[in-house]
């Protein structure tokens, strides 16, 4: 059975703060962000809108890409989001 890993970017309602993360269960992780289940950076800035994600089969590739995105500029993150989700819609309900 193949295991999948996800990198994701979440933001707040006004799209002013971006957070990049990696997880093995995207649905559960975004659920935790939305429900503020864990005290974290995302709670402090009300980050609960999933605007970008990508699936990987290799955990090391996912972690490497997360680090690359985090090290990039805000403009690069915004460009990544716009290319994937031009309307900055919350993608959580599209996850299966």
Question: Overview of this structure, please?
Answer:
It is a single chain. This protein has helices at residues 26-35, 41-44, 59-71, 74-84, and strands at residues 5-11, 18-23, 49-56. It is of the alpha+beta class and 96 residues long. The chain has one domain (5-94): GIY-YIG endonuclease. A three-stranded antiparallel beta sheet has the order 2-1-3, with helices on both faces. It is globular, with a radius of gyration of 13 Å.
Q: Strand count, sense and closure of the main sheet?
A: 3 strands, antiparallel
Name of the CATH class? Alpha Beta
Q: Low-confidence spans: pLDDT under 50, at least 5 residues?
A: none
**Can you give the mean pLDDT?**
95
Distance between the termini: 18 Å
What's the structural domain tally? 1
InterPro entries: GIY-YIG_endonuc, GIY-YIG_endonuc_sf, UPF0213_domain
Pfam family, one: GIY-YIG
Domain GIY-YIG: 3-79
Protein name: Excinuclease ABC C subunit domain protein
